[in-house]
Design a protein that fits this description.
single chain, alpha/beta, Aspartate Aminotransferase, domain 1, Aspartate Aminotransferase, domain 2, three-stranded antiparallel sheet, 13 helices
């Protein structure tokens, strides 16, 4: 089996698994407890927070551990909206191709009286800074801008630092969903002009069910879960110690190996893009260069994305037809529609997301198999 769906989830690394195991079996004390086992967990919690903070360029106290990217996104948006409402600012700017954790939360806020402006990406998936500046310059009631660091379907990487600089010039909070970027691209919350950032461990060889929200010191954070005083009162509930420890180790390992992994993935990705582009009626989605190193997304005319996924699975290849969170949906990809693809091509996409564990031999097999699957679907549909 060839696994090429790493944008959906990655294998937990050996180092992360080894670090997690003792917190299931030996150091199982509650980090809020005052006995020796509790103190062992509390020390590990602090160490994980300090490790992650050093990798993101922030302070340990600016990190709140969560269950993953979706929770972090929700908390960031709701916190900014709460603060905005107190200041009579009820306008939020985002984009049309955000993850549904953002878009669905924005829809809820819209029903609560907030006005939402969704910027439209260009045909390659870029948000133009001048479009953001035009919106912010036209009104004074914006409380938040939330734009993803790198798109989860087509991999396009945004000019985050420039976008954040514009936000700060207008005194507006800037949040970025960096779930796909963390561990794969260098992130520095200060250089990137970020006030809040979300990430999820299972995208960089950490465990599922673990994530965090970075919020710059002084940024108001509203708790979504009420109860105890964990996470400085920002997120009640006993911390998931094995997952937090595993996340810290996985992020450190990914950042340490980032340059080497990126070099390999660019070679594999370039070969994959070239090979798939030779299939008649194929269209690369996103920019050819400024994209996540392992992300390759194509649409193939006269095909259907989910059928391609099924056929490739039968050939021993795990891929997807867009975001894992939209799996099973018969609707065309909202990401591809936003960059101008037709409904037909938006429903005929294939997302292949590689990791450093993939090989060139696997890439060659993927190219061969995709070609066979596309031709098979077209032959059947033409009868």
């Amino acid at each position: 089996m060839i696994y090429a769906d790493n944008a959906a989830s990655t294998r937990v690394s050996d180092a992360a698994m080894a670090a997690m195991t003792p917190f299931f079996t030996r150091y199982y004390g509650n980090p809020s407890a005052t006995h020796s086992l509790g103190k062992k967990s509390s020390e590990a919690l602090l160490e994980a927070r300090e490790t992650i903070a050093s990798l993101l360029g922030c302070l340990p106290g600016e990190i709140t551990f969560t269950s993953g990217g979706s929770e972090s996104d929700n908390q960031a948006l709701i916190s900014a909206a709460y603060l905005g409402a107190q200041q009579n600012k009820r306008h939020i700017v985002s984009s049309a191709f955000e993850h549904h954790a953002i878009l669905h939360t924005l829809e809820k806020l819209k029903n609560m009286g907030f006005e939402i402006t969704l910027l439209t990406p260009d045909s390659k998936g870029f948000i133009h800074p001048e479009d953001l500046e035009s919106v912010l310059g036209s009104r004074s009631d914006t409380c938040l801008v939330t734009l993803m660091y790198a798109n989860n379907e087509i991999g396009t990487v945004q000019p985050v630092a420039q976008l954040g600089q514009i936000c700060h010039s207008y005194g507006v909070l800037f949040h970025s969903d960096a779930v796909q970027a963390a561990g794969h691209l260098p992130i520095d919350v200060n250089a990137d002009n970020l006030d809040m950032l979300s990430l999820s461990a299972h995208k960089f060889h950490g465990p599922k069910g673990a994530g965090l929200l970075y919020a710059r010191r002084g940024t108001h954070i509203t708790s979504l879960i009420e109860g105890g005083a964990q996470e400085r009162g920002k997120r009640a509930g006993t911390e998931n110690m094995p997952a937090v420890v595993g996340m810290a180790v996985a992020l450190k390992e990914s950042c340490h190996n980032m340059s080497k992994a990126s070099d390999k993935l660019r070679v594999l990705g370039s070969r994959l893009i070239y090979g798939l582009s030779q299939i008649p009626g194929s269209y690369l989605n996103g920019d050819a260069e400024t994209r996540l190193p392992g992300n390759v997304n194509f649409s193939f005319d006269k095909t259907e994305g989910e059928t391609l996924v099924v056929l490739l699975d039968q050939m021993g290849i795990c891929v997807s037809s867009g975001s894992a969170c939209a799996a099973g949906s018969l609707e065309p990809s909202h990401v591809l529609l936003s960059i101008g693809r037709s409904p037909e091509l938006s429903g005929a996409s294939l997302r292949i997301s590689l990791s450093e564990e993939n090989t060139m031999e696997e890439v060659e097999y993927i190219i061969k198999s995709v070609r066979e699957a596309v031709l098979r679907i077209r032959n059947v549909s033409s009868r």
